[in-house]
Amino acid sequence: MAIDKEYQKMIEQIKLDNEELTTGQIKEILKKQKSDRDELLDYVYIMFGKYAIDNLISMNSVKLNSIKKELTKILSNNASSLTRSEIAVTTELLSNVFKETYYKNAFILDSGIKIDLDFNLIRQEFIDAIVNKEFAGELFSDRIWTNKTDMMNKLQLEIIEAMKGNRTVQQVSNNIKKQYDVQAYESLRLARTEMARVEAQANEEIARSTGIKKQLFLATLDNKTSEICQFYDGQEFDIGDSNKPIPPLHPFAVAYL
C-alpha cells in the first residue's frame, strides 16, 4: 500500500524539526569551545610576549618544567569543563528529541485515524534510559570524554613544542585553532548521530504503543547519502522484524524508520 504523501510530509517534518533543534543546541556547545580556545590562545600569546626572542620561545629547563605543570592543569580543567558542558547540553537535547518525536508522531497518527489511539505516556526515567543507552558499544558521554581528552593531549604536545623553541607564535596559533575545528566537527557528528538513534527509539515505542504493524525506511537522498541508506530507502519492514535496519546505520546518518 502506498503511503499518503501528506502523512509522509508531516512525519518527515518531525525529523527536520529535530535537526533544527540539534543545530541550535550545537551552537551552545561550539560557543563554549570557542571561548576556551580564545582563552588558551591568550595564554600562548602572553607566554610568547614574555619569553620569545625572534618569534621563538627561549627559556631554561626550570622555567620550562614549571610552565608545563601549569599548562597541564589548565588543559585538564578545560577538558573537564568542556566535557561536562557538552554532556549536559547533549543529554537535554536527546531527551527533548525523544519526547518531540514520540508525541508528535502520536498526534499525527491520532489526527489521521478514525479510532482513538491508546498510546503510553512516557516516564522521564524511561527516556533517560534511552538517552544513556550505548551506540556501537559505547555511551555518548564516554565518546565526549575521549574526544576532549584526545584534543587536550594534542594541544599540550603542540604548546610544549612551542615552549622548546620549535614553533613560532603563528604556527602554534594555527595548530590550536585546527584542533578546535576538528573538535567542533566531532561534536556535531556525535550530536546528529545520537539524535538519529533517539529518534529511532521513539519511533519504535510509538509504533508498539499504537499497534503499528509496518514501518517505512526513509533516507535523505543527496550526494552525501551513504550506499547503505540509499539501499534501504523506501523499503517496508514488519515492526517485529529483528533484522530490520534501525538508524543510525553509521555516524552522521540521515535516515528515518
UniProtKB/TrEMBL annotation:
It holds the Pfam family Phage_Mu_F. Residues 154-250 form the Phage head morphogenesis domain. This is Phage putative head morphogenesis protein, SPP1 gp7 family. It comes from Clostridium grantii DSM 8605.
